[in-house]
Design goal:
This protein is α/β, with parallel strands linked by helices and about 220 residues long. The protein has one domain (about 5-205): Vaccinia Virus protein VP39 (Rossmann fold, 3-Layer(aba) Sandwich), CATH 3.40.50. The chain has helices at about 5-15, 20-30, 60-70, 75-80, 95-100, 115-125, 165-170; strands spanning about 50-55, 55-60, 85-90, 105-110, 135, 150-155, 155-160, 170-180, 185-195, 200-205, 210. A 7-stranded mixed β-sheet has the order 5-4-3-6-8-9-10. The chain has a two-stranded antiparallel sheet with strand order 1-2. Helix 2 (about 20-30) packs across helix 3 (about 60-70). S-adenosyl-L-homocysteine (SAH) binds next to strand 2, helix 5 and strand 4.
Length: about 220
Amino acid sequence: MDSEGVRRSMVERLRASGPLDARVLDAIAAVPRHLFVDAALVTQAYEDTSLPIGHGQTISKPSVVTRMIGVLMDGVTARAAGHLGKVLEVGTGCGYQAAVLCRLSRHVVSVERIKGLHDKARELVAPLRMDHLRLVYGDGMLGHPPNAPYDSIIAAACGSDVPEAWLEQLAVGGRLISPVLDAANKQRLVVVDRLEAGGFQRTEYEAVQFVPLKSGSI
Ligand code: SAH
């Protein structure tokens, strides 16, 4: 498959779809999404859709990955640095979004609770030689204290609220983005900024569709 050509056309369609961060679109253009899906799904790899990756989980939609990382790039620290700094991703899945994050960060720690997916992601990212990516097997609801604090935290699974551990591990000036269930049980993107003046500021964004955030690891 002419992966570069189809990938470029996907990025052009995303670019035309609305205001998205050009730096994030460049990162999307550089990551071979077809390498992260099963052979049978390769022809769909550059459609703007989520696809099954096994264990009942999915690879996120490129437009949603672009949107969420774009919002992170607008946090106080990221805006000043021009990159995401040290990042915590909860929900590695196949490792696709982690690879995109790596192109915009200094260091990425990505946690996955399903061992089968963690192991597969390890194999998939190996050929991409991303020295500053650390894949961790465990319960991401607890964050990953050894590398805290994080300038940016991004979750790829939806819980009933933002876990306390993520707030504790967010650096001052840092930004977190996660899908969260609202009062009507609908998923919505939530951004939390840790203010330099102290405290947290929470902002709600558009409705989204993610797999559930679950505690424990399997
Ligand atoms: N980031 C992926 C999306 C994976 S789907 C991509 O690039 O497309 C979300 C993932 O979150 C699933 O693999 C699921 O197993 C994982 N997940 C759910 N709850 C979790 C938790 N508490 N800790 C770590 N991973 C979790």
